[in-house]
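Lab manual, section 2.4: Encoding a predicted structure.

Procedure: take the sequence of the chain (332 residues), apply the prediction step described in section 2.3, and record the output as structure tokens. A sample record is shown.
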Amino acid sequence: MKKVLTLALVAVAAFAAEGYKVLNKYKIGGTGGWDYVAVDSAAGRIYASHGTEVDVVDANSGKLVGKIEQLHGVHGIAIAADLGKGFISNGQSNSVTVFDLKSLAKTGEPATGQNPDAICYEPKTQRVFTFNGRSSDSTAINAKTGEPLSTFSVGGKPEFCAADGAGKLYVNLEDKGSIVEIDAAKPAVLRTGSIAPCEEPSGLAIDTKDGVLFSVCGNKMMAVTDIKSLKVIATPAIGQGPDAAAFDPGTGLAFSSNGEGTLTIVKNTGGKWDTADTVTTERGARTMTVDPKTHRVYLLAAEYGPPAEAKGGKAGRPTVLPDSFHVLVVGK
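Recorded output:
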């Protein structure tokens, strides 16, 4: 009996709640939609995409410290802290806005492929890569000079990307249910691997220590992929409507932000990746980033009113209330 009880206690401990909860809400306000969010851990700044601008928020106080305005359908933000530069993908103008991290002044706008969405900085080559949804390709840019270097096919509609810090990038192909590995120096696709049974993968995160990738999937699972083989090794359950994935190397936890209003936490227990906890957030909080320094998760959200009037037999979507845009802070 004692042995059975001990095993039961170990099992409970392994799947106990991780202690994460909503700690704060940083109000930004204004109107317009949003997409990805990024954090500059060293500077303690949050960069929130917000329609035609990027709002810059102090991560400790929650105060708005600046804006990068007159943009064109912002999707993603990439931070090159070693160069003192940031990069914003403009989906409407097929371009990237380069800005100075200290002054927030815009310093350039190189052209990309069609409808750049995800954007990642690769530190070894000091190149920035946009992943262009409409043209199914990627544009490599010299991060020092802002010069576009090459636009190359990735073989499908790319979603989010992750860099390993050693010269390679990875990107989900939403329409193919696969992951692409890219050599940043060439630049070119090296390998493509199926991540079935994952469907419509969007967010992607990487654990460079253990060599795994985390893709959040439209069919309520997280596909954990071994980088060496590009084979799926686990499919823990997540919430509905995921968009972003994140990994915190300090805690060893992976996250999925879900539009239903939850944050799924996945961890490796006894060599197996499984769902460890689910945190209630807010409806529509689908995008996020994790700060590896503070271990806090930042999600973008807004408050919603009644649905818009139905048209063509289809129910209207809930309307975003004016001046309600904010950053949710999740941590311990």
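Check your result against the sample. The first helix runs from residue 2 to 14.
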